[in-house]
Amino acid sequence: MLLTACVVLAVGFGTLWPTLVVHGPAGTDKTIHLLAFAAIVLPTAIFTPRRLFWIIPAAACYGAAIELIQPMVGRTADLNDFLADAAGICIGAGAGLLLSLFVPKP
């Protein structure tokens, strides 16, 4: 839970910082969104997969809220960013569930 909270804070900081500019090829920002939201759900999927029923919708709502808030801090909202967030959530959950098979159970 602490790891997830730290990732959530880092994602919020990175996505709501007013002057953040991402350099790289086209689509780099979408890749960053995907990886960030995968990182949000991955620890839960690995260590407490039964909690995915709430972390998945919470992460999706967080991504939507970020897109709604961004215009207020000098950034632009983008539906494709939200779709990248959703893809990351799915990938993080799936990868985490696979990895959870190798984590010893108490």
TrEMBL record:
Keywords: Membrane, Transmembrane, Transmembrane helix
Domain of life assignment: Bacteria
Pfam families associated with the record: VanZ
InterPro entries with a match to the protein in the record: VanZ-like (IPR006976)
Native organism: Pseudooceanicola lipolyticus
Listed name of the protein: VanZ family protein
VanZ-like domain sequence ranges: 30-96
Spans through the membrane: 31-47, 52-70, 82-103
